[in-house]
């Protein structure tokens, strides 16, 4: 049985600002594309050069509503997934306020990390 290879098509990259985005989306007619530089001027992107500044910026919008985070333990791989022996996962999941997660992130970037990685996925 022969496996046919499917050619990978390059996703077009466009450059536009927020005011042009809607018309560019409509022009693409449901085809994927990458927007380069759209977030370049966002305050948190500018603050990214200094982790403490970026964390402080995010804290201004954080609420006490819980978010789900994943914590990679030291000694595990750099990717979230299964444990080395495949008997479970290499992360611990918890729910806590975003303010708590940002506080831990600040501790991680300022000193010896207590965890190997910290992940917060998409959240409201």
Account of the 3D structure:
The chain has 124 residues and is α+β, with helices and mostly antiparallel strands. Helices cover 30% and strands 19% of the residues. It is built from four helices and five strands; from the N terminus they run βαβααββαβ. The protein has helices at residues 18-27, 43-47, 51-59, 98-110, and strands at 13-15, 34-36, 66-72, 91-97, 117-120. The strands form two sheets. The protein has a three-stranded antiparallel sheet with strand order 4-3-5. Strands 1-2 form a two-stranded parallel sheet. Strand 1, helix 1 (18-27) and strand 2 form a beta-alpha-beta unit. Helix 3 runs antiparallel to helix 4 (98-110). The longest helix is centred in the C-terminal third of the chain and has 13 residues, at 98-110. It is extended, with a radius of gyration of 20 Å. It starts with 12 loop residues before the first strand and ends with a strand.
How would the blueprint of this fold be written?
Elements: E1 13-15, H1 18-27, E2 34-36, H2 43-47, H3 51-59, E3 66-72, E4 91-97, H4 98-110, E5 117-120
Parallel strand pairs: 1-2
Antiparallel strand pairs: 3-4, 3-5
What does the radius of gyration come to? 20 Å
The arrangement of helices and strands along the chain is EHEHHEEHE
Main pleated sheet? 3 strands, antiparallel
What would the principal axes of the Cα set say about the shape? extended
**Which residues sit in consecutive blocks of at least 5 with pLDDT less than 50?**
none
Could you report the average pLDDT, rounded to the nearest whole number?
84
Oligomeric state of the chains present here: single chain
Per DSSP E runs of 2 or more residues, the count of β-strands stands at 5
Structural class: alpha+beta
- Report the sheet-strand fraction: 15-25%
Q: What is the percent of helical residues?
A: 25-40%
> What's the helix count?
4
N-C termini distance: 47 Å
Strands in their spatial order, largest beta sheet: 4-3-5
